[in-house]
From TrEMBL:
Highest taxon of the lineage: Eukaryota
Keywords for the protein's UniProt record, in alphabetical order: Cell membrane, Cell projection, Coiled coil, Cytoplasm, Membrane, Nucleus, Phosphoprotein, Ubl conjugation
Subcellular localization(s) per the UniProt record: Cell membrane; Cell projection; Cytoplasm; Nucleus
Every FERM domain range: 14-304
SUPFAM superfamilies: Moesin tail domain (SSF48678), PH domain-like (SSF50729), Second domain of FERM (SSF47031), Ubiquitin-like (SSF54236)
Protein name from the UniProt record: Merlin
Entry binding sites for a 1,2-diacyl-sn-glycero-3-phospho-(1D-myo-inositol): K68, M69, D70, K71, K287
PROSITE patterns associated with the record: FERM_2, FERM_3
GO molecular function ontology, one term from the record: actin binding
Species name: Helopsaltes ochotensis
GO CC, alphabetical: cell projection; cytoplasm; nucleus; plasma membrane
Chain segments annotated as coiled-coil in the UniProt record: 311-464, 517-544
SMART domains, sorted: B41 (SM00295), FERM_C (SM01196)
Membrane topology designation: Peripheral membrane protein
Length: 552
C-alpha cells in the first residue's frame, strides 16, 4: 500500500480545547465523533470512571449549554472557533459526597468546582463558614502547618474568601490570614483528600449547593419566580430569595415531567394534587431544565437501587484504596512522628551538648577566675600580713607614744600645777606690787606735797631773809671794805649755809623719791616680762595637752 493511499484513509479531524477547573487540554477529534466519544476521551485522559456526574459545557449566545452525548459534536450548535472550547464540569451533584464520590480525582474535581462557585458567590456561604472552608483548602494545598516554614504572608497570593466577605468586614489581609491560620493549625495530620472531603461535607449543607437556577413565570406575561433543580428534586423560589423555596417537589413525589415549547408541566405522584405548570422565556431553557431533571432523576433512582457490578467493583477498589492510603498515611504519620521525635531528640542533644559546652566554658572561666582570685587572695594575704606587721609596729609605737604622752601629761599636769601656783604667786606679787605701788604713789604724793610745802617755806624764808637783810644793812653795797661788815658776812654765810643744808636735804629727798620711782618702774617691767613668760608657758602647756588628747 502506497503512502498516498494511507493519507487518503486518514480521517478528518478538528481541534478541541478542554478546560477543567485547574488545567487545559487539547485533543484532535474526528469529524464523525459524537459528544460521547469526546467525553470518553477526556475522561480517559483524566483517569475518571465516575463519568455520570460530569459533562462538557459551552456558551453560545450568552447561554450555557451542555454538549449532548448522542449527537455528533459538529452537528450541535457550538461556537465556530478553532479550537472549540468546552468546559469539563460537574453537571449533577451527589446527595452525600462521602458515600457517592469514590475516586480521588472525582472528589478533587468537585472540590475545585465548589470552591470556585463559593469564591464567585454562586453559592452563598456565611463568613464564619468561609474561614473554616478556607482553612481546609489551605490544608489540602500546603499540608500540615509548620510555623517555621509557613511564615506570615504565605497566603498573600491565594484567593480564599469571597469578595463579599472581605467588603463586609473591615479587616486587613494580615488579620484574615491570622484567622485562617488559627483554624489551619488545628487540621494537622489530615491528608489532602481528607481535607477536600471535609470541605465538600461542609459545602453540601449550604442552601445553594448543587442548585441550577432558571427564571420562570406562572403565566406567559412576566417572570416572577425562580426554578431550581438539584439532586433532591425541583424547588420554586421567589425572585429575591434563593435560600428558602416556596414550594418543593422531591423526585420521589413526581409522577411525570413534560415539556412542550416554552411550557413545562410537573405532575405529582398524588393524582389529587395540583399539576404545576410554568413558562420559560426560551425553548432552549425549557429543554435544558428538562434535561437536568431527567439526569438528576436517573441518579436519584440509581442511588436507591442495588449497585451494579461496576459500581460494586469501584466501591471495593475505593475502599481498598482508602485502606491502603490510610495505612500509608498512618505509616507516613508514624515515620513523620519518629522523624520529628528524632529531630527533637537531636535538637535536645544539640541543646544539651551546647549547654554542656557552655557549662564547661563557664567552669573553665570559673576556674580561671578562681585561680586569679587565689593569686589575688594570696597577694592580699601577703599585703595583709605586711599591713598587720606595720599595724603591730604602729601599735607598739602608738603604745610608746601613749606612755610618753601619759608621762608628758603627768609632767604637764605637774608643770601646770606649778605654773598655776606660780601664777597665783605672781598674782599675789602683782597684788602686792599694786598695793605697794599705790602706797608708794601715795607716799610720793605726800612727799611731793611736803617738798612743795618745804620749797614754799624755803621761798618764803629766803624772801623774808632778803627783806630783813635789806632793812638791817641798807649801805652794805656802798661800803664793802667796812670791817664790821665781815662779821655780818660771817653771820650771813652761816644763814646761807643753813639754807644750803636745807636745800641739800630737799634734793636728797627728791633723788630718793626719783630713785624709788625708777626702782618701781624696773620691778614693774620685770614683773610684766615674768607674766608674759608665764602666759607663754601656759599656752605651750595647753597646746601639749591638746596634742596629747589627739594622740590618745
Amino acid at each position: 500500500m502506497s503512502i498516498r493511499g494511507l493519507k487518503k484513509k486518514q480521517p478528518k479531524t478538528f481541534k478541541v480545547r478542554i478546560i477543567t477547573v485547574d488545567a487545559e487540554m487539547e485533543f484532535s477529534c474526528e469529524m464523525k465523533w459524537k459528544g460521547k466519544d469526546l467525553f470518553d476521551l477526556v475522561c480517559r485522559a483524566l483517569g475518571l470512571r465516575e463519568t455520570w456526574f460530569f459533562g462538557l459545557q459551552y456558551t453560545i449566545k450568552g447561554m450555557c449549554t451542555w454538549l449532548k452525548m448522542d449527537k455528533k459534536v459538529l452537528d450541535q450548535e457550538i461556537p465556530k472557533e478553532d479550537p472549540i472550547s468546552f468546559h469539563f464540569l460537574a453537571k449533577f451533584y451527589p446527595e452525600k459526597v462521602e458515600e457517592e464520590l469514590l475516586q480521588e480525582i472525582t472528589q478533587h474535581l468537585f472540590f475545585l468546582q465548589v470552591k470556585k462557585q463559593i469564591l464567585d458567590e454562586e453559592i452563598y456561604c456565611s463568613p464564619e463558614a468561609t474561614v473554616l472552608l478556607a482553612s481546609y483548602a489551605v490544608q489540602a494545598k500546603y499540608g500540615d502547618y509548620d510555623p517555621n516554614f509557613h511564615e506570615p504572608g504565605f497566603l498573600a497570593h491565594d484567593e480564599l474568601l469571597p469578595k463579599r466577605v472581605l467588603r463586609q468586614y473591615q479587616l486587613t489581609a494580615e488579620m484574615w490570614e491570622e484567622k485562617i491560620t488559627a483554624w489551619y493549625a488545628e487540621h494537622r495530620g489530615i491528608a489532602r483528600d481528607e481535607a477536600e472531603m471535609n470541605y465538600l461535607k461542609i459545602a453540601q449543607d449550604l442552601e445553594m449547593y448543587g442548585v441550577n437556577y432558571f427564571p420562570i413565570a406562572q403565566n406567559k406575561n412576566h417572570t416572577d419566580l425562580l426554578l431550581g433543580v438539584d439532586a433532591k428534586g425541583i424547588h420554586i423560589y421567589s425572585i429575591n430569595n434563593r435560600f428558602s423555596p416556596n414550594k418543593s417537589f422531591e423526585w420521589s413525589s413526581i409522577r411525570n415531567i413534560s415539556c412542550s415549547e416554552k411550557e413545562l408541566t410537573i405532575k405529582p405522584l398524588d393524582k389529587k394534587a395540583e399539576v404545576f405548570k410554568f413558562f420559560s422565556s426560551q425553548l432552549k431553557v425549557n429543554k435544558l431544565i428538562f434535561q437536568l431533571c431527567i439526569g438528576n432523576h436517573d441518579l436519584f433512582m440509581r442511588r436507591r437501587k442495588v449497585d451494579s457490578i461496576e459500581i460494586q467493583q469501584m466501591k471495593a477498589q475505593a475502599r481498598e484504596e482508602k485502606a491502603r492510603k490510610k495505612m500509608e498515611n498512618q505509616r507516613l504519620a508514624r515515620e513523620k512522628q519518629l522523624r520529628e521525635e528524632a529531630e527533637r531528640a537531636k535538637e535536645e542533644l544539640e541543646r544539651r551538648l551546647f549547654q554542656l559546652e557552655d557549662e564547661a566554658r563557664q567552669a573553665n572561666e570559673a576556674l580561671l577566675r578562681s585561680q586569679e582570685a587565689a593569686e589575688l587572695l594570696a597577694e592580699k594575704a601577703q599585703i595583709a600580713e605586711e599591713e598587720a606587721k606595720l599595724l603591730a609596729q604602729n601599735a607598739a609605737e602608738a603604745e610608746q607614744e601613749r606612755q610618753r604622752l601619759e608621762l608628758t601629761a603627768l609632767k604637764s599636769k605637774e608643770e601646770k600645777r606649778l605654773m598655776e601656783q606660780k601664777m597665783r604667786e605672781a598674782e599675789l606679787i602683782a597684788v602686792k606690787l599694786v598695793k605697794e605701788s599705790d602706797r608708794r604713789a601715795k607716799e610720793a604724793e605726800h612727799l611731793k606735797q611736803d617738798l612743795h610745802e618745804a620749797r614754799e617755806a624755803e621761798r618764803k624764808a629766803k624772801q623774808k631773809l632778803l627783806d630783813i637783810t635789806r632793812l638791817n644793812y641798807p649801805h652794805m653795797a656802798k661800803y664793802p671794805q667796812y670791817s664790821p661788815g665781815d662779821n655780818r658776812d660771817a653771820n650771813f654765810d652761816k644763814g646761807s649755809t643753813k639754807l644750803d643744808l636745807k636745800d641739800i636735804d630737799l634734793k636728797r629727798l627728791s633723788f630718793e623719791i626719783e630713785r624709788e620711782r625708777l626702782d618701781y618702774l624696773e620691778k614693774s617691767r620685770k614683773f610684766e616680762d615674768r607674766l608674759k613668760e608665764l602666759k607663754s608657758e601656759i599656752h605651750a602647756l595647753k597646746l601639749e595637752e591638746k596634742q596629747a588628747g589627739l594622740y590618745s
